[in-house]
Amino acid sequence: MISNIDLIVRLFLAGILGGLIGFEREVNNRPAGFRTHILVTVGSCLIMILSIYGFIGFGLDGRGGEPARLAAQVISGIGFLGAGTIMREGTNVKGLTTAASIWISGGIGLAVGAGFYLGAFITTGIALFSLASLGLLEKRMVKLRRYSEVKVGGVGRPGFIGDIGTVFGRFHINIKNIVVENDLNQEDDEYEYNIQITFLVRTPPKLNRGEVYQGLKNIQGIESVVWDGIQVIHNNKIL
């Protein structure tokens, strides 16, 4: 049987490792964050401990059941939980990384519950590196390919996206992806808008952004434009 101290250590260690992954997701404002990942890892750890030690004295010759059977259900169960974080908006799919982080948190919890501490530590380190460092690398690669993220906020109307696309086309800017968020009810000291459209665009080598800003400013309904994290139009005025 497992000792009380070992039981407590495994559960707390699982919570800490899951919390590290959850903290990274929480900081990046993802659907599943700090608490969710802690609950997944601790729950998985407990089920693994129960699978190994909870049935000793039962079954044939008192050897208990097969430890892998109960623990295996954690993987399929977490699959349903992860599916709840995946959202589809048109052709854009969001939440896959968070779903994968929940799944790997379950695996870490199982490893800790089985006493496989080294594997749990290494997996947590790899997961954190993938979520944090590789995410920054992806953003830098996007910049090297001359991709830009353009967030347009304004009052939606028929033909609104088409007018923006016309301006981009005039300057040979290719649109790679569009995400539309409606009824944001975001307020500022001077204005409010009810739609935000995020464009991932590829710009030509020589682009006069000033002319692009002027073209966007003249579109009816646009109140705010943020280009690569820098606000260039505010309250329909070029900054």
Terminus-to-terminus distance? 68 Å
Unreliable residue runs: 186-192
How many helices? The count is: 7
Rg estimate, integer Å: 25 Å
> Could you estimate the helical fraction of the residues in percent?
40-55%
Beta content comes to 15-25%
What can be said about the biggest beta sheet?
A: 6 strands, antiparallel
Which structural class is indicated by helix and strand composition? Answer: alpha+beta
The spatial strand order of the largest sheet comes to 4-5-3-6-7-8
Please, how many domains?
Answer: 2
Question: Averaging pLDDT over every residue, what do you get?
Answer: 80
Written as H for each helix and E for each strand, in order along the chain, the element string is: HHHEEHHEHEEHEEE
State the shape. Answer: elongated
The number of strands is 8
How does this model look, in words?
The protein is built from seven helices and eight strands. The protein has 239 residues and is of the alpha+beta class. It has two domains: 4-141, no CATH class; 145-238, Alpha-Beta Plaits, CATH 3.30.70.260. Strands 4-5-3-6-7-8 form a six-stranded antiparallel β-sheet. A hairpin with a 2-residue loop joins strand 1 (87-89) and strand 2 (92-94). Helix 1 (4-27) packs antiparallel against helix 2, helix 1 (4-27) packs parallel to helix 5 and helix 2 packs parallel to helix 4 (96-113).
